[in-house]
Amino acid sequence: MMKKVFLMLAATMIGSPALAKPVYLTCTFPGENGKSRDFSVTFDEETQSLSYTSPTGYTTKLPNVVFKANAVVAQNTDISSGLYTTDHWEINRATGAVSRTVKMGSVRFPDKIPEQTLTADNGACATAKTLPRKF
Fold first, then answer.
1. For residue 16, what pLDDT band results from cuts at 50, 70 and 90?
2. Residue 126 — left, alpha, or beta (φ > 0 → left; ψ -120 to 50 → alpha)?
3. How far is CA 123 from CA 61, 78, 110, in A?
4. ∠ CA(61), CA(67), CA(72), 5° rounding?
5. Which residues contact 126 (CB under 8 A, 6 or more apart)?
6. Which residues pair with residue 80 across a beta bridge?
7. 3-state secondary structure of 31
8. What percent of the chain has pLDDT over 90?
9. pTM value?
């Protein structure tokens, strides 16, 4: 009997890991002529996912996400007609800095068609204000 009480007491003293909740961010990249490009990012460590939504409402989920202590890094590569496009994201958890690099190259002829950087954006993210939810 005493052994059961001790085990139950010990079980209640062991902390359980906190469930990670999705993180919602509003982000912006500076644009040409002073126009910024705004978008939103959602990431969730528990499900190992990251997605971003353009202002037009189009959402892209990136499948390869690495959660580091100070950064969230995501990458996706698409291959079509012998060309690859790699979309690489990095969000600094401490500062909110966000970078996105899009590169394109040839799968079959990398020596003849060198990899090119199509886009290299640097911007900032802030925690989005969300409404309390009932479910």
1. very low
2. beta
3. 19, 24, 31
4. 65
5. 25, 26, 27, 96
6. 83
7. coil
8. 64
9. 0.76
Cα 92 to Cα 88: distance, rounded to the nearest angstrom: 14
The DSSP bridge pattern shows strands 97-106 and 116-127 to be: antiparallel
Handedness of CA 97, 22, 75, 93 (dihedral sign): positive
List the structure tokens of 132.
């309390």
Token pair recorded at residue 119: 């886009």
Distance CA 118, CA 86 (A): 10
pLDDT at 26 over 90: yes
Both structure tokens of 13 = 């003293």
CA dist., res. 77 & res. 89, Å (int): 12
Exposed/middle/buried for residue 80 (C-beta within 10 Å: 0-12, 13-18, 19+): exposed
Q: Are 67 and 93 in contact (CB under 8 A)?
A: no
Residue with tokens 């990431």: 43
Tokens of 6: 């001790």
Whole-number Å distance between alpha carbons of 82 and 32: 31
